[in-house]
Give the backbone structure.
Amino acid sequence: MQTSLAKFIADTNAGKEANSILRKCVHCGFCTATCPTYQLLGDELDGPRGRIYLIKQVLEGRKATATTRTHLDRCLTCRNCETTCPSGVEYGRLVDIGRKVVEQQAPRSPIERAYRFTLRQIFASETVFSALLRVGLTLKPLLPKTLTTMLHAPRPAGRWPQAKRARRMLVLRGCVQPALAPRVNAAAARVCDALGITLEEAPGETCCGALDQHMSAPESALARAKRNIDVWGKQLDLGAEGLVMTASGCGAMVREYAHLLADDPIYAARAARIVAHTHDLSEVIAAGPLDEVQWGQQTQRRVAYHPPCTLQHGQKLPGSVEATLLRLGVTLVPIRDAHLCCGSAGTYSILQPKLASEFRHRKLTNLEAEQPQEILTANVGCMHHLQAGTRRPVRHWIELLDDALPAVQRAS
């Protein structure tokens, strides 16, 4: 694709990156075939190729409009198009650049800006989010059905292993996961303990910054990234082997730190170090001595697995969880269109509820087609979103492994 970027951005780092990405696009349209919003809405401008044209026009000097912003808002940023693209177009990075410019040229109303700012503050604060969830659960009988389907009492976390193993790794606590699914990190700690690894949460860390980044607040995202880099860097200096991400959405964001801070003279090298030491939980478990653990009958379950977009398209780890589950004897039912997004996508399910509900309905139809005993996934947002649409249990895949541990190890 030929480009001629406008003066306001052409010589900036963002402009140079956008220009490089745009020039890779050959207009083939393969991306539209795997784009959830294009499949649902049938509008070229609600597919990757159309959005690329919109961003290109804005960067070349055509003023953005509210319509431009609407088409970008409808994008899930699932990055399925990146997996499909034969030319390697980095759409996720391009849309971040485009959204920032569009927000500046076609600003939202004060009410909408305040609403989005409030969402970012609530979801990025474990304290605030946990308090609001407790209030919601208390008032659940009085709330409308549209809200009650989103409120579920979490499973208790259980005991965190006390033994200190030879290997020590950090685990990101997260923002909403401690309230919505406290058992996930505890289960990961117990399974890792059985594999000879001590998991620890690093005091002082903050939100990974994903919500800020994808809601056009990059400065806030970078501030959070720098704080985490400082905290985790000190722990690596003290002997921590690396970072374990139990929420694939957070993992995808942390793996972007080096790119986002590449031009920062202080943090570029520090960010690259953090990224090099970041691992999805599936990578850590798969590399462990799984055959040395006496797994229980829970691994004989018949389940449907939903691979989050942030794992298969964002972190480029397709099949990583599935391989471990199959290795341990879990039966995975076939899933049609497993590559498609469930509609959670951070705050998308809140900001685009109608579209998100339709994506969820389509996903659950495919996940439940073979009548699995339960649905597993690898991201807290997907868990919560899917559970709101079904009575079938939806949980993190590490919880199944945790339940299958020998009783003595679960109680240690």
The longest helix spans residues 218-237.
